[in-house]
Amino acid sequence: MRYSTEAEPIYAEFYAKFKNASDILTPSGNLDKRGMQQELYNLLGDDKGRIKVDQYTDGLALIPDVEEQIRQLHWKYDEYCERRDREGYERPSEMPPEMHNELMKLQARLDIYNLEKEALEQQLSEIQSVENPDCLKFGPVGSGQLRNGDLIELDGQRVERINGKLVITEPGSPYLGMAVVDYRKLVSDPWLKQQNDKLNALIKQRQEEFKLKGFSDIVIPTRRRSISKNDLPPWPEGVINYLLVESESK
I need a surface site. Which of 22, 135, 217, 241 has the fewest CB within 10 A? Predict the structure, then answer.
């Protein structure tokens, strides 16, 4: 807690109220991985703190929204102080009671949201450690598996058709919710080109060493090697997560 009950009873009252109402922090909270990711997205949003309300509208995520409300309240208090000063009254040293109570409520809300964020991140981290070992084992090479002519797996990631689109639905994938067409165009193809450029540069360097020394210590890899998840390309900017869009439309 930000304040003790004795120091700020209003804050403590709202803190307890919001915590008890949280489906994430109470034992009754029972979300699967997709649900956890959705809740975390609702709390944090994208890299600009925004979420897709629907396919055409966006807005602030929960944490950025409360932070903005707190900033607006401080701005309102500063404006109030300036007005009192201009009117010839003594400049206030603290917020009026109703404004202070609103601040305590917002700070309690923000603190619970941050607790929820930490809890979700911890749970997702624990799930990550026991996931499909074949998921992106060799990187986004674009290797797929068909069943009756339909793509069902891509680079070890489960694929399903959602609202007519092929979408990655593998729980452990950093591309969970990405349309396959976006994955191929914006993740797999650029990554493969980068790997091929590196290989060609290595081959060229080996050939040059042979010309100079008659031998080379450079070894050209002849088969795919597994890669670390940390070396995977990031989610491309502006690409829609169709699982989140689908969830928000319900």
Answer: 217
